[in-house]
Amino acid sequence: MPLPTDTDVSTPKYLRDKYAIVGVGETTYMRGSNMTTRALGTWALRNAAADAGIRTSDIDGMLSYSNNDSTPAPFMAGDIGARLDFYMDCIGGGSSTEALIGIAIGVMEAGLCTCVAIFRAMNGFSQVRIGGTGARSAAPIGGDMLHSRAYGWQSAGQMFSPTFMRYMYQHGTRPEQVAMVKVVHSEHASNNPKAYYKKRYTVDDVLSSRIICKPLHLLDCCVETDNATAIIVTRADRARDMRHTPALIRGIVGRCSKPRMDMHYQTGPIERVGAYYAKDILWPNAGVGPEDIDATGAYDAFTFTSMLQLEDYGFCKKGEGGEYVSSGITRLGGRRPNNTSGGHLCEGYTHGMNMVIENVRQLRHAADDSCPIGPDGKRQHTYDYREGGCRQVRAIEVTANLGWANPMTTSAMVMRRG
């Protein structure tokens, strides 16, 4: 639906549609890359610059999520021939991508730089695995982990499972409903040539896979991959001269948290996630509501994370998440498809950046699926969503990305087609 153009110079309305994502790039989603994160990162950054149609030397700002085994931004910049006027590397899990885009807008608005590249490079399978079982260990135990590991919460699944279990008990959600998140995302991935897992799964497949940490089955958990991803953000008026239809940024909420981070279950229901608070920032900032969104990218480190985010951001009422994700709404061809690339459950694990990349391509009406290329060099989308076919959402105009670091913390972003 058409969205209003705001002329009010108050914040944040003044920033709506002022900045855009103009370039996206990634490496292959793989296991056993035999490459450093430095090599992976430069690969993705060069692809993003080429996608935008700019020189790498045009990049003068760089941000990254650098936890575990990534490489700092200044090293990446030097390798691609960029000199930076501003850079920042941070930690923060799956709430990083949207928050970093918000920071990019802020530093450009402050005049610190003009074109920002954001990247994530990780050997998430072959080197530093999140559960600590890779070839190299993650950082030494410190900070919050001094508390959580005493309770056996070493991996993300172990830390999040109390939230998931309480949710199921409180609302009567059935495992077969939650399993539909994996089923739907696998259908989307089967139409994605670059997805690591392209197999279509059934509910029975999910529920018969081994238990990792109750209530999580193996197929409730994301794929671990080696990869790098990158996006480029600049002012919308500059974007008009670049290669693709820009994805205009309507609004962002960054790293919004519950009142407590360490023992979040002491403040509000344990099954309440950060999105409960973030929605009151995101939708007013963007000037739209859940009903205006054509497709979502809801963080799916686990099937539950996607469902809980969709619920607390207001796409359905609290307690109705199971019905929402199992109703067909989130399928390609449904009212509001979710994670049309297959997301973290199937395409690859990138701490949320691949889902932003996917929504940018969707807004360009240029999803990179298996549809034929026409004489004009563009894909001729068939909107046939059977296996091996199309994954472009018809007439898509507005998207939402919903990031997740943990049940306590979230970031999110709304974009529209330029």
TrEMBL record:
Enumerate the Gene3D superfamilies for this protein.
3.40.47.10
InterPro entries for the chain: Thiolase, Thiolase-like, Thiolase_C_2
Residues of the Thiolase C-terminal domain = 285-369
Q: Name one GO molecular function term.
A: acetyl-CoA C-acyltransferase activity
UniProt cross-references to PANTHER family, sorted A to Z: ACETYL-COA C-ACETYLTRANSFERASE, NON-SPECIFIC LIPID-TRANSFER PROTEIN-LIKE 2
Name the UniProt record assigns to this protein: Thiolase C-terminal domain-containing protein
Organism of this sequence: Rhodopila globiformis
